[in-house]
Structures are given as structure tokens and as C-alpha cells.
Amino acid sequence: MSASFSGELWNGITDIYEAILGHPFLAGMTDGSLAADAFTFYVIQDALFLRRYAQALAEVASHAPDAAQTEMFARHAAGIVAVEMSLHDTLLGDLEIDPAAVDATEEAPTTLAYCSYLLAATRGGSYAEGVGTVLPCYWIYAEVGKYLLGRGSPNPRYQKWIDTYGGDEFDAEVRDVIAVADTLGPGLAVAERERTHRNFRATSRYEWMFWEMGFRQETWPV
To answer: Which of 8, 129, 137, 143 is the catalytic position?
Structure first.
């Protein structure tokens, strides 16, 4: 992997990914010990996040250099609304939460910070910088999904989440975005390459922080 640009990006976050795999939120999903209220908190915040993530993908689509890449990112943005939000609606129903209540929920500090970074970086940076910004959410979730799929969960709600992100359909979408990153790498000047690395590492950190937020049910301190 290290010979490709995507491999170069991934090699820059291996410490973060190892920390993610060791997080008690994920361990609690696989052994069933994760508190139900922590998972509920996470699902609600993730539903809020996905709305902004779809906007970030649409921004990336608007900067794409050709119609095929514009279509791909626009399709992925629409797919989040159609597929992943459907999963969240199902989970919210299982958790006996009215989906309308999500609209009235305030974004936790980490959710707001992550979303703000996503939108600022995709709107204000180059196409490559935008791809580097959104890629960790794709890639880390796919790798975590496959990792957890090999372990399973005794809790059917947690297993449903694992099946979604560990499945072949989601993995195929991730591979398409990784392929885009690899086509961009050779043409990047040093400064743009460094900014792409910085964005990739920053949003990878936010991925760890998001699970930490759910585990601790993060609130505003004042």
C-alpha cells in the first residue's frame, strides 16, 4: 500500500486506527456490554453528522475535474440520505426514539467540530484536499466494519450496524474513492500534498473522537 498515494495517507494514521480498534465503544459492541443509552446517543449524533457529511460530499462533487467523478460523489451523497439514513431510522425505531426528535437534538461538541471542519475544508480547499478530508469516514468505517464482522455481536442492534458497514456494497464504494485518491497523488505539488495529508489525519482523529463522544455521551461543559 505504501507505494500508492492512498497507502501513503493510510500509513500516516496507523496509530489513530489502532487506537480506534482498541476503543471501548467498539469492544462493547462486539461483546454486547456497550450501554444502550451510549449507543442511542451515538446513533442520534451520527444521524445529525450524516446530513452534514452528505453536504461535504456534494461540495467535493462540485470540485471534481470530470463528469464521472462528479456523478460518483453526488451519488454517494444521495446514497447517504437514502440508505444510511434508512438504517438510522430503523435503529431509532428499535430504540423507541421518534425520528422527529433528532431534529430537536443539539449537536454535541465533537459532532459540531467535525462537521465544521468537513465543510470548511471541502468548501475552501482543492479537489484533492476535499477527497482527503472525506476519505477517512469512508475508509475507517469500512475497515472497522470488516474487523467487527469477524467478531460479531450478541446484540441484534449492534450486529445490524456491523453488517451495514462490514458489507461488500459499502466496501465497493470505499474502493472507488480510494482509487480516485490514487489518481490524484502523482499530480500534487508539495504544499497541496501536505494539506491533503493534514486533512486526512485531522478527520481520522475526529473519527476516534466521535466514538469517544458516544461512549461518554458528551455534553457542552457550559
So the answer is: 137
Q: Please pick, among 59, 84, 129, 207, the residue that the annotation labels catalytic.
A: 207
CA distance 142 to 80: 14
Nearest to 68 by CA among 185, 177, 192, 196: 177
DSSP class of 107: P
Q: What stretch of H or E contains 21?
A: helix 14-21
pLDDT at 1 over 60: no
Rg (CA), the chain: 17
Domain ranges of the chain: 5-216
Mean of pLDDT over the chain: 92
Between CA 43 and CA 54, with CA 49 as vertex, the angle to 5 degrees is 125
Distance CA 149, CA 198 (A): 30
Residue type, 186: P
Q: Which grid coordinates are listed for 23? A: 476503543
The b-or-e profile of 94-132 (16+ CB within 10 A means b, else e) is eeebeeeebeeeebbebbbebbebbbebbeebbbbbbbb
Tell me how far apart the alpha carbons of residues 218 and 36 are, in angstroms, rounded to a whole number.
15
115 among known catalytic residues:
no
Does pTM top 0.90 for this prediction? Answer: yes
In the CATH scheme, what is the code of domain 5-216? Answer: 1.20.910.10
